[in-house]
Amino acid sequence: MKPISISAFKLLYFLVISAWCPTLLAAEPIRVLVWDEQQPRQKPMYPEFIGNHLADSLKKNKNLEVRTANLNQPEIGLGKTSLDQTDVLVYWAHVRHDDVPNVIADDIARRIQEGRLSMITLHSAHWAAPFRSAMEARAIQDTHKMLSLKDRDKVDIQWNTWRARVVPTRHQNPDITRHFEMNQEGRIKVLLERPTCIFPSCCTPIQPSQIRTLLPDHPIAKGIPKTFALPETEMYDEPYHVPTPDQVIFDETWQGGEYFRSGILWNIGKGKVFYFRPGHETYNVYHQPLPLKVIENACVYLGNTLHDSGTHVSIQGTLKKILVFSKTSWYRHPMIPLINDFYIELGKEKGFEVTTSENPDSFNSVGLKDYQVVVFNNTTDIGKSLNSDQKEAFIRWFRNGGGLVATHAAGVHHDTWDWYAELFGTNFNSDSEYINARIVTDPMAISHPINQRQRKVMWLEGDWLNFDKNIRDLPGVTVLSGLDENSYDPVRPLFERRGGKSMGQDHPMAWVREFQGGRFFYSAIGHDTRPLEVPYGEEHILRGILWAARELN
């Protein structure tokens, strides 16, 4: 045997250590482009212009590779070559919005949708062409999600207004309106209101404002106090006519009682847009450390999310086929068809086949043999949906190494099937309103494959269930994550009147169980598609499916 050389040994050692502890390797830098229209009014407060001022601050973070661009450069600094070298675009603009060609704005929005770019929009850039293109893309995205998967290819969307800068009245409804019509050919015409991206009141003389941190655990809020003041700024006042955001991280108030959502995050396709309101060019906002910290945090968060989207678990060629079963025998969640569509789209993207069914005849030894995983999608009172032969066929399939994934109301009223009740280990007691809650990874399951690459603390909206007993100490159970009941009201009034109870300090939200030869994964998310379509939710469910299929160990 030929002896290994010292240099080869060092290389082997480096590769092993790198695989064991990836943090020892230098992280891929986040490429930030700060764009600024460079108007002369900036000069007294920002002698080198706002864009350069922000870039100098961001360059202090060694994980950021920062460049600048402006309106006076070829292709206004936002041509293909420049954008190809950018992960996060920080965009400041105020008065020269019409000088930005729509073709560039639409290219930026398309890159965001494809997950090749994320954008931070500052102050008056709410009326900038790239931001408006991105908001229009989000309005279209929201429209498609209102339709079933089979109908989305039949949609023809038309804007019912031009892209204009018309300030709405204070009483004008900020919700985006949609009018659906079906023609004789079966196509669906949607007249869609274009987001105006504006608000009814602004721009009082210089005055202070108070900013409140609404999501203190969000990475963009890292190191930001619960409240802080800006000594000089201008005022914007709601309602802000934009698509409903996924998260409102900061809000802001003024002495006159005005209110504004000042730090807003949207998921647009595979990318993100963060809007941060403070930053008028004649005020010292960007000389204050906390607004600069927010922008730095946003660059890091958006950049890391963009990089992570290319390194999530790859399953091409491994998981082959799953069955999503959604028959109900008690309350039926109205979003079940759209949740089924979520699984179909997930399978198309990740390379496995998804069959959706409400026909219990699939539950026999022949019908189940081709599936690695069965998903129970909100199958309330599942024991009444299957007869005794179908239950026995499913139990045999599971004991032979099958994987079961159950979501949300698959944990509701299942005492009509003894075996499933034993597997699940608990039953429904009550639930909350649909509300934002703090999810915390269980400290004993941080290294579990379903939790890998996921944030340890996460805020997510949902209808959160309370169970009649805790499953933590059951044989084969590992609790993956729990709900912090201090972050939300766990029992809604309807169930309070019926004696419903919360679960207290230890409130499991997701868990796995090795049971009688099979694998079981339960997650409380899945009341509707909203928590499934954010990166955390999609990865959570995908990894649960893979674990149940024994593709993750």
- Please tally the helical runs, counting DSSP H or I stretches of 4 or more residues: 13
- Rg of Cα set: 26 Å
In total, the number of domains comes to 2
β-sheet strand percentage? 25-35%
CATH-assigned fold name of the largest domain: Rossmann fold
| Average residue-wise pLDDT | 91
General description of the model:
- This protein is of the alpha/beta class and 553 residues long.
- The chain has 2 domains: 30-309, Class I glutamine amidotransferase (GATase) domain (Rossmann fold, 3-Layer(aba) Sandwich), CATH 3.40.50.880; 321-548, Class I glutamine amidotransferase (GATase) domain (Rossmann fold).
- It is 25% helix and 27% strand.
- It is built from 13 helices and 23 strands.
- It has helices at residues 6-20, 50-58, 80-84, 102-113, 129-145, 149-152, 289-309, 336-350, 365-368, 388-399, 418-424, 493-497, 535-548; strands spanning 30-36, 64-70, 88-92, 118-122, 155-159, 178-182, 188-192, 201-202, 207-213, 227-233, 236-237, 247-253, 259-268, 271-276, 321-325, 353-357, 373-377, 403-407, 428-441, 457-467, 477-484, 508-515, 518-523.
- Strands 2-1-3-4-14-13-12-9-10 form a 9-stranded mixed β-sheet.
- Strand 13 (259-268) and strand 14 (271-276) form a beta hairpin.
- Helix 4 crosses helix 5.
- The longest helix has 21 residues, at 289-309.
- It is elongated and about 80 Å long.
- The chain starts with 5 loop residues before the first helix and ends in a 5-residue tail after the last helix.
